[in-house]
Amino acid sequence: MTSTPFDSLPAPADPTQELEGLIRLLQGLGFRLRWACDGLTEADCEAEPVEGSWSIGEQLAHLTALVRWGRRALEDGTAGWTGNVEENRHPTAYVEILEDLDATVQILRSDPGALSRAVLTAGSPDHTFPSGYLVNGPWADALHHVGQVVLLRKILGHPAPQHQPFLGQPPAAE
Q1: Structural domains for the chain
Q2: Tell me, what DSSP letter sits at residue 4?
């Protein structure tokens, strides 16, 4: 196998040094999620367009769990992975996720030290991971799953509204 950049990740640096960049990443995640989910229907959320794949509803349940995991780690100092939620699989589930993301950003702004104190636990027995793993763990995974929602909507023939994530601009008014 050919070695390339990013074959592995180095240990995370102290993320509090780049707090505003991290906040911007979370804001970008929220913006992309908001427009990836605009106009979802119950049928969209329940459809399984590729056998064995998660439906959009299941993607939303996983996104809920990922964002809550990060938020709990910042709020409580330690948070364990509890698995996907059973609720929050409906067309407006993204609103609750956005509220959790906004609360996460507010925690970071009001108590920047919460980031350096945050610890994630996962596995059995629990393994502990410092706060830098929030980035390549739940938050990077959340970005991935937002992309899955976008792709599944295209496969279903009901694509998300055209918006401009780079510029942070919503769809143009019709």
Answers
A1: 18-156 (1.20.120.450)
A2: -
Comparing CA positions, the residue from 33, 70, 64 lying closest to residue 170 is: 33
Q: What is the mean pLDDT of the chain?
A: 91
Report pTM: 0.90
Starting at the edge strand found earlier in the chain, the sheet holding 119-122 runs 78-80, 119-122, 127-130
Q: What is the dihedral sign for C-alpha 27, 30, 147, 171?
A: negative
pLDDT at 20: 86
Question: What is each CA distance from 82 to 123, 127, 160, in whole angstroms?
Answer: 10, 13, 30
From residue 15, alpha-carbon distances to 18, 23, 116 in Å are 6, 11, 7
Mean pLDDT of 159-168: 90
At residue 155, the pLDDT reads: 95
